[in-house]
Amino acid sequence: LIERMRVYGETIFAEMTRLAVETESVNLGQGFPDTDGPRSLLENASRHILEGVNQYPPGPGRPELRRAVSRYRSRHYGLDFDPDSEVYVTVGATAGIAASLLSLVERGDEVIVFEPMYDSYAAMISLAGGERRPVALRRDPESGRFTFDPAELRAAVTPRTRLVMVNTPHNPTGTVFTSAELEEIAAVCREHDLIAVTDEVYEFLTFDDRRHVPLASLPGMRERTLSISSVGKMFAVTAWKTGWVTGPEPLVRAVRTVNQFLTFSANGALQLAIADAIEGEGEWIEAQRLSLQGKRDRLAEGLGDAGFDVNVCEGTYFLMADIRPLGYRDGEDLARALPAAAGVAAVPAKVFYDHQDEGRHLLRFAFCKKDEVLDEAVARLRRWH
Ligand code: PMP
Ligand code: GLN
């Protein structure tokens, strides 16, 4: 293994899911729903396979899906992208993130990232030969939400900064960036001529009337932003590994150049089914949002009863819980012990930080599960402590 990748062992999601299986724990670690998304989507995919959609689709994706993506970005966000040159289908958001960073980060370039950060950002910045400049998201003592200090963001910019990596709604803190927060980021990008790559996989998972705002929709940002989405989160089919990148033609062309040698193309039959679901399953998406909001409240209350200090998130599948009221200090130690001790698996937030002390006392719990599964997890945690 090349030297710069040697620090990356097994991902925390794989490790915790393995531990959960070994101990027959309730798995609130890795974020995947335990109910599959719309019936019509599943049936259409099966039908397309049986009817013979089984050979390579075009590298950039099936035109039906690129058109559907272009239309929903326009409908929801007022952003217009040419389906032929400005929409590009990838093998999940993971490949979109990889292709974006590998095509835009030059050796020695610096990338600003908000920490805690989703694990693939650090690995792909390293693979590209770049360096991370983390800016902390900290829990505001008054509002309880995780946010950043604009002065810290500005101080992270150097002459070598090339790109800002943004994730909203944010995994693992659950923060949905407000327009004001996004404007702080946009202003820095415009002033220093930076590119933004935005991971928007939880775009339809926002709660309490909050709505996702893409950074690309702010003044001067369309021309310098690549936005990444995933059908895994949009339609609760995380195994489908299909996503898309939208952005201005020159940036999408860069992604295309790299991605044609990473995966060449994604699954064609699934793309056709997804195109129909994007057009026809808007109500399902809204119902999913409400259902998840209820699950958030259910698990937040249960974890609170079990003694954790819970941050009620604004979006995503995840709650962050402070373990200190229970007398614990290190979330990584606790996450490794919890499956055997309590029969519940969670993810230690610490692994999402460069400055690990900032997240040492936090566990991330996924609530994208059936109510009875959440209740069982809470019952087990209450028995444990
Ligand atoms: N980004 C974030 C923030 C995620 O939580 C995930 C995991 N779902 C991904 C990217 C990867 O998405 P996909 O499964 O589509 O590759
Ligand atoms: N995105 C999922 C999470 O944050 C995990 C995806 C994965 O296992 N790589 O839990």
TrEMBL record:
InterPro entries attached to this UniProt entry: Aminotransferase_I/II_large (IPR004839), Kynurenine-oxoglutarate_AT (IPR051326), PyrdxlP-dep_Trfase (IPR015424), PyrdxlP-dep_Trfase_major (IPR015421), PyrdxlP-dep_Trfase_small (IPR015422)
Q: Does the keyword Transferase apply?
A: yes
User: Under the GO molecular function aspect, what terms does this record hold?
Assistant: transaminase activity
Per UniProt, residues of the Aminotransferase class I/classII large domain are: 25-381
Keywords of this protein's UniProt record, alphabetized? Answer: Aminotransferase, Pyridoxal phosphate, Transferase
Q: Which cofactor does it need?
A: pyridoxal 5'-phosphate
- Top-rank taxon: Bacteria
Enzyme Commission number(s): 2.6.1.-
User: In this record, what's one Pfam family?
Assistant: Aminotran_1_2
- CDD domains to which the protein is assigned, alphabetical: AAT_like
What protein is this chain from? Pyridoxal phosphate-dependent aminotransferase
- Organism of provenance: Nocardiopsis alba
